[in-house]
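Homework help thread (please don't just give me the answer)

Our assignment gives two proteins as sequence + structure token strings and asks us to describe the second one. The first is just a warm-up. Here they are:
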Amino acid sequence: MAHKRALEALDRTLKDHRNDSRCFVGAMILLSGDFRQTLPVIPKSTAADEINACLKSSNLWCYVKKLQLVTNMRVTLVNDTSAEEFSKQLLLIGNGRVDVEESSGLIAFPSNFCNFVSSKDELINEVFPIIDNHKNKKWLSERAILAAKNKDVNDLNFVIQNQIVGTLHTFKSIDYVTNEEEVTNYPTEFLNSLDVPGLPPHNLQLKIGSVGIMLRNLNQPKLCNGTRLVITKLMANVIHAMILKGKFKSDEVLIPRIPMISIDMPFEFKRIQFPIRLAFAMTTNKSQGQSFSVCGLNLENACFSHGQLYVACSRVGKPSALFVLAPDKKTKNIVYHKDLY
């Protein structure tokens, strides 16, 4: 779900390079995507801004020939009798075709769509019933809990990691503003208190056996932003970890401290820290493209953006593998524009 300007820039570059006015100078470009999923993230934007950033709003869309995939591969691979109905219900959610209560604006989950839990502790126990089984890397790689907001994710990760037997190691970052003239305005204590999305925390607490996720590209394509790993050894200036998913699954990697600059603040500051966060639980947006055998969904704070509910529910291939914590078994389903499909 890249911004339309990226593709338009590629089109103009090819035309300039080849001195050819044809769209993409006559080359065939293969794109893959799902407009039901979360749209391009535009900071401080409205729904209209996000729709306007989509490829369908580009002048290139008239040249696109759409080939629609009709098989849900996650559902097909599990070979479960209840999965076919689950697949149809997912599409109803993704297309915004579910019934909405006029008074509250909420939707009610179908009774056979998932397994409902009544508390956060029950959700954790269903997804991570034997968390001390961290030596089984395959078991860890196939499960996660998803939530809409970072606050819920951080709370879940704290509780789950505490269940692991072992020494808790704390790594503190070095924070400072890049503009020397602003040093007196933003003291170090203030910078340390900031927990900015996309950056690791000032106090990074880890145990051997903890699951983490990379926040920066260190060694593409092996160690990239979004790579999930399990911690195998903790040292003062380097972390030993093993990749859990993907082409480089089971490969051992070393993660050093690196400088990272925040771009989401009114001022620029640099944080030197290990580029990793806990990932027993993760945000829905971060889970795009991943598949799990068991998935939990915390909807105490409802989804706030287009496609988040669809993405969260579609990480598994059968209803028995999805555990949902939702007040009164209801939640919001935000659909910006049905014509996107």
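The one we have to describe:
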Amino acid sequence: MIVAIVLALAVGLLGWVYQALKPPPPKICGSTNGPPLTSPRVKLRDGRHLAYREVGVPKEEAQYKIIICHSYNNSKDMHLPASQEFIEEIKLYIVLFDRAGYGESDPYPARSVKSEAFDIQELADKLQLGTKFYVMGWSMGACSIWSCLNYIPHRLLGASLVVPLVNYWWPSVPSALSRQAFRSIPPSFQQTFRVARYTPWLYYWWRTQKWFPRLVGDDTPCDSDLEILKSLSGHLNHNQEKVTQQGEHESLNRDILASFGSKWEFDPIVDLSNPFPDNNGSVHIWQGCEDRIIPIAFTRFIAEKLPWIQYHEVLNGGHLIIHDAEKFEAIVRALLAR
């Protein structure tokens, strides 16, 4: 009798553990009982679809074409403060896309930093943007730009990394700097990144458990970020409800796991070389001096080790500088300058 009870409890416990670790299936856009399709999409070679949004002048009339990668918990519908006057002045065409699993782009369980570079390349080809184009990534979206610089540098006219997310486990970064930078970010960020790095199989449970804080800001945003949030009524995205509509695991969780849960196949600091040795293009990093998410000491180290990257520090700027009209215009003009 006791053996039977113990076995029943063990089976029940195993069943609970299995359910706790197993994420639910995604709700695919356009499928039965899934979210509706409302955006244009391109079909990739592997059968997946990427949803995109076009901003600016028609691409046939554009002098400059930029692909922008959104950040964590965002989408192609992120707020862009580009004025119509600015867009028409320089004949600018921008395409934003939902990264895999976000918004209306199909989930991709094998998503990685590497795969995002080739998603960008296929998107450009499907939209017929030409043999070369500009790329820009904000925060976690900048991981995709590091990947472009490594895997498809021959397709780039220029690249801009705006408050780029850093990986604290890049091998070439001195351990003292990594520890210092890691300790400067909010404690809940530290805990979440550690789980993703060392026990990725536990990550879904970590994101759904209620016992410990999970990836929430422990610090008040800096003054400039608060002003931007106030001006946008707290909405950095026009359709926030669509960001994770296919499932948080397919969007948010896989974003963290791709950036921190698996070893990058390259180290940006030692493996990248200047894609524009003839000065026919440029690479930029923009860092807010008051950013409370990205440690400025880390980006300064990157700029020092990669002097071919033009490094810009924004005095009193925070993590949301891309949403400031004046700063966004400066970022774009620097990227397009020859």
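TA reply:
I won't write it for you, but here's a hint about the kind of observation we're looking for: Strands lie at 41-43, 49-56, 64-69, 92-97, 133-138, 156-162, 282-288, 309-314.
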